[in-house]
Amino acid sequence: MSEKNREGKRTARERLQEQRVQDQRRQKRKRTMIVAGSVVGVLVIGAVIGILVANSGGDSEGAAAASPAGATGENKLVIPTGASDAPSTLTVYEDFRCPACGAFEQGYRDTVHALEDKGQLKVDYHLVRIIDGNLGGTGSLNAANAAACAQDQNKFRAYHDVLYRNQPPEQDDKFASKPYLLQLAGQVPGLTTPAFTACVNKGTYDDWVNKNNSAFNASGFNSTPTVLLNGKNIYGAQAAPLTPQKLQQMVADANKGKKPGTVTPSVTPPSAPASGSATASAPASTPASAQASAPASPPASPPASPSVTG
Which of 88, 187, 193, 233 has its CA 20 to 30 A from that of 219? Predict the structure, then answer.
């Protein structure tokens, strides 16, 4: 065999060996890519499942959020005050940062409490955080959570009133301060228990407040306060001007011939004194200084326009 033929055969063998090595490398790379792709696929699926699980939490329609003691209604989003069997129900959607809500409370609080204490009316409160959404901050959320914590201690009504008597200007997110909310709780005897303090600091009912806010946004109402008597809007732009005397008459007309509700001490704290007088008969939860800040006489028309949502 000539040298040239031997060289040709050797070159062919080398080429064949080199081709086999390249084929093996390609197969190895292919297997590596398949394995890597499988791992990435598993990770992606896991991430998607994690996101779905996370999104199924707090704000989802069917998720269970911790609710304060005695909360009622669908998803337990309502804090009730007054006799549960009262013949009429006032439904109030409000935001503790909302100045129009504060004006409503200042103008109608004594009337509402008197009707509650006579078993004529119960009030269903829906606590929302519209101002947080419009102006930023967490004052509406933190104050609503603190009020829900007070409900656990059977002190909701007293603490609710203290918050409104100390409501900061709308632009001042003072209620975002949990130490300040705890300081205000000191005006309600027996409220500042370790359980209440922990509830406020942990934001135990934050998810509950957020679910309340979502329900309000889906309700068709677009302003706070929204006030309904037995389901009918009686306050704000869509309603005729309301006065405390008119509210009393509306409740009396609705209750005509009906038995008053059963009033118990747990839902009937002492009534506030008459406007302008800060006497020893004032409830322990309402200091004289706070009483003096109340208007001398209720306004003859809605005190302020409701705050419209953004």
Answer: 88
- Tell me if 127 sits within 8 A of 88, measured CB to CB: no
Backbone φ and ψ of 184, nearest 5°: -65, -35
Number of Cβ within 10 Å of residue 6's Cβ equals: 10
Other C-beta atoms lying within 10 Å of the C-beta of residue 212:
25
Determine contact, residues 67/222, Cβ cutoff 8 Å: no
* Rounded alpha-carbon distances, angstroms, from residue 201 to 27, 132, 155, 232, 270: 60, 18, 17, 37, 29
Output the tens digit of pLDDT for each of the chain's 310 residues.
Answer: 555 555 555 566 666 667 776 767 777 666 656 545 554 444 444 443 343 333 333 343 445 689 999 999 999 999 999 999 999 999 999 999 999 999 999 999 999 999 999 999 999 999 999 999 999 999 999 999 999 999 999 999 999 999 999 999 999 999 999 999 999 999 999 999 999 999 999 999 999 999 999 999 999 998 999 999 999 999 976 677 899 999 999 999 999 999 999 987 644 343 343 333 333 333 333 333 333 333 333 344 444 445 554 3
Enclosing domain of residue 85 = 74-308
Query: Residue 18 domain-assigned?
Result: no
Question: CA separation (Å) from 18 to 29, 32, 74, 105, 222?
Answer: 17, 21, 75, 89, 77
**Closest residue by Cα to residue 287 from 196, 183, 193:** 183
193, two tokens: 């228990």
The residue to which tokens 């900061």 are assigned: 168
6 located within any domain: no
Q: Is residue 260 part of a domain?
A: yes
Number of compact structural domains in the chain: 1
Strands, E assignment, the chain: 79-81, 88-94, 121-127, 223-224, 226-229, 232-233, 307-308
Residue 53 lies in a domain: no
pTM over 0.85: no
